[in-house]
Amino acid sequence: MAQNLVNALSLGSLYALIALGIALLFSIMGLINFAHGELITVGGYALLAFHRLPFAVAAGLVVAVVVAAALLMERLAFRPVRGASGETMLMTSFALSLLIQGGVLLKEGADPQSVDVLGGLGASIDVGGLSVGRLDLAIVGVTAVLLAGLAWFLRATPLGVQMRAAAEDFTMARALGIRADRVVATAFGVSGAFAAVAAVFLVARTGTLTPSMGLSPVLVGFVAIVLGGLGRLWAAAIGAYVLAALSVMLQAYLPGGLAAYRDALVYLGIIVILLFRPHGIAGRPGGVRV
Amino acid sequence: MLLLVAGILAVVTAGCGSDEDTSGTSSSGKLPDGPITIGMAIARSGLAAPYDLGPARGAELAVADINDKGGVLGHPLKLVYGDTKSDRALGTTVALDLLGKSAKVMVVTCDFDLGSPAAIAATSKNVVAFTPCAGSSQFDVPTLGPLAYSMGTEAGAAARNVAQFAYDQGYRKAYLWLDPSISQTKNTCASFEKSFGALPDAKVVGQDTIQQQDTSFSVQVAKLRDSGADVLELCSYNPGAGAALRELRAAGVDIPVTSHLAMDGSYWLEAVPNLKDFYYDAFGSLYGNDPRADVNTFFSRYQAKFGEPAVTSYALTGYATVQVIAKAIEQAKTTDGAALAKAIDGLGSFETILGPTGYSAEHHIVADRPSVIMSLDAGKFTPVATYVRAAESKVG
Question: B46 at the A interface (CB within 8 A)?
């Protein structure tokens, strides 16, 4: 059981990184950014390109590339449709997602590629009878630091406070003189940084890359946000950990024949939770209902 | 469900196209004045593209060889490509398009799930369809009818060979990791479980599911570690299989792993550096150390012609497919589906680059082909044994 909790904590941290990147944009501008998965893909392939450099340099470059991609995304694709309806922005993000995926496919080809990053962190250490991967520890630790950093940024810096104000009421915040362009661009930048870190851990964990590698994480991220409660950042993180725990426990305890239906059962569980808490586990009543 | 829809579509479109048939295009058996066209309804992009590329190039080498010797009954062979984009629904469309371009035989994607829609589209127009390497037992007469063939080794037969190899290595407690997303992996694990479990003192001590989209396999690794197994049979494919192996080895679990054809090739090895004690069955070794000289020659010619080494030994199957098609047309003197199928079924044990290959009216997938067991040790691939019908044999 304890072993499974450790596994759930590690997987939940990875999910939380992805979910927060998406939740940040949703809470500020109501954008459901499907192209977030492609930021992870771009990060993965950037890591493949830089993996022979010292790890710290490679990781820094990956963050720089993905943040730049996220800022470009904002400037070129989302700023022109900022005032538009949610559906228009959703369609824009779909189109962008396909466009980037097509670009990666053209440049890198369809074949899966493999890379060994953070191989040294792969080994496990024994903690009181539990086998804990050093990579798991790194994921949990870095996620905790990033979550704390984001909380500090949102509470203690002027830009962070402006972002929170924009998240509460975007129109009112603008009326009060908050510069929307700067706030939104910052949100995209932070979202990109989270995607970059998620990409590094994802590739370190699986060692493999495909042009569609971002799809599955982004879906998991959305589910985590809905499960946690739309519109609240920390609710997205809670959703991510609950989703990971459900997934790990079912994988661990489902009998052989049923294990293939793990994901179906996970989603069934989520539907049940949402029936009882339509605003998500930690969402506020009066917020967005699912 | 998708297959059913594709099947219905194929039947409907076959009905719509009956006028065309009588006017003598696709299903007419008469040999054309010019080249005999083989339609290649395969994936040139998407998930299955890496699996289809090698066999297609192998087919090109065979076509070049046959045409150098004057073709088939004086007709050169010609390959015409269509891209199914690894999409089941497109398989039907692409196959019908190729039939419209006078394809007389259809080569389809190397997988039952992805290749069968194109195969159904062709066979419903009385055109023989061949998959170079689908291993699912469903690619056979009961499911796809009398005109569809697979040059692949039936996954169950190959898994029996691997199970016997594992047993002969002294392993007695096997654990299974199954990716249930395609029939080939399901066939492989089911057959391994049955064969290994039937051997004296041997037992399958547990099994688990692994999925392509999983980002963590730590639960599966923990359960495997607790099982006391001395060998792991991995029924999955890349990229998921490589990711699972990476996590297994990273967690310090170094038990031997046996697997199947889908793990052939070195493109995924970066994910699991220094992987040792890994075994799988292949059509042959592509590293110049196969016991058969013609196989080694094939791979050096492949590299010379295409400017890069073959990625997997699947390339051999494309060559063998064209060998069988050419021989059968030569004997049948027609490309009419029924007559050509009769000729293929009557070839007996026909010598191809993959070794003796034979079909019967009842079975259109190969079950008694030699499985070359490859060993992987820190990046080096070595053929260590050859098994046929779950018994070690000498080949070469």
Answer: yes
pLDDT in tens, B190-208: 999 999 999 999 999 999 9
Of the listed ranges A24-38, A136-150, B139-153, the one predicted with least confidence: A24-38
* Per-residue pLDDT at A91: 92
Cβ contact (<8 Å) for A111 and B208? no
In chain A, the percentage of residues whose pLDDT exceeds 90 is 54
CA B27 vs CA A38, A63, B57, B303: distances in Å: 45, 58, 26, 36
Nearest-Cα distance to chain A for B268, in Å, is 5
Residues of A in contact with B180 (CB under 8 A): 260
> In this structure, are residues A248 and A7 in contact, taking their beta carbons and an 8 Å threshold?
yes
d(CA A241, CA A225): 11
d(CA B327, CA A128): 67
Range with the poorest average pLDDT among A12-26, A64-78, A259-273, B84-98: A259-273
Cβ contact B377:B257 at 8 Å: no
> Which candidate, B305, B295, B277, places its Cα nearest to that of B351?
B295
A residues 252-271 closer than 8 Å to B (CB)? 252, 256, 259-260, 262-263
The two tokens of residue B166 are: 């594992």
Q: What is the pLDDT of residue B266?
A: 85
At residue A286 the predicted structure's pLDDT band, cuts being 50, 70 and 90, is: low
Q: Is the pLDDT of residue B183 over 90?
A: no
Q: Which of A7, A111, A113 sits opposite B218 (nearest CB)?
A: A7
Is the CB of A23 inside 8 Å of chain B's CB atoms? no
Could you tell me if A187 and A24 are in contact, meaning their C-beta atoms sit under 8 angstroms apart? yes
> What pLDDT score was predicted for residue B369?
86
Q: What is the pTM (predicted TM-score) of this model?
A: 0.83
Could you identify the residue written with the tokens 């419209």? B100
Q: How far apart are CA B308 and CA B62, in angstroms?
A: 18
Alpha helices (H) along chain B: 2-16, 18-22, 49-68, 88-100, 112-123, 141-144, 155-168, 183-198, 218-227, 240-250, 293-306, 315-332, 337-345
How many whole angstroms separate alpha carbon B251 and alpha carbon B217?
10
Provide the 8-state DSSP code for B354. T
Longest dimension (CA), chain B: 67
CB B152 within 8 A of CB B131: yes
The pLDDT of residue A111 is 78
| Structure token pair of residue A57 | 């340099």
Query: What SS3 string covers B253-322?
Result: CCCCEEECHHHCCCCCHHHCCCCCCEEEEECCCCCCCCCCHHHHHHHHHHHHHHCCCCCCCCHHHHHHHH
Q: What is the token pair recorded at A111?
A: 């074949």
| Angstrom distance (rounded) from CA A23 to CA A233 | 6
Contact A115 B271 (CB under 8 A): yes
Contact A256 B211 (CB under 8 A): no
The Cα of A253 is separated from the nearest Cα of chain B by a number of Å equal to 10
Tell me the pLDDT tens digit for each residue of A170-187. 888 888 888 888 999 999
- The mean pLDDT value for B142-164 works out to 94
Q: B267 in contact with A at a CB cutoff of 8 Å?
A: yes
Question: B142, B120 in Cβ contact below 8 A?
Answer: no
Taking CA–CA distances from A10, the nearest residue in chain B reads B216
pLDDT average, residue stretch B86-100: 94
The predicted structure's pLDDT at residue A258? 81
CA-nearest residue to B46 within chain A is A110
What residues of chain A lie within 8 A of the CB of B238, using their CB? Answer: 112, 208
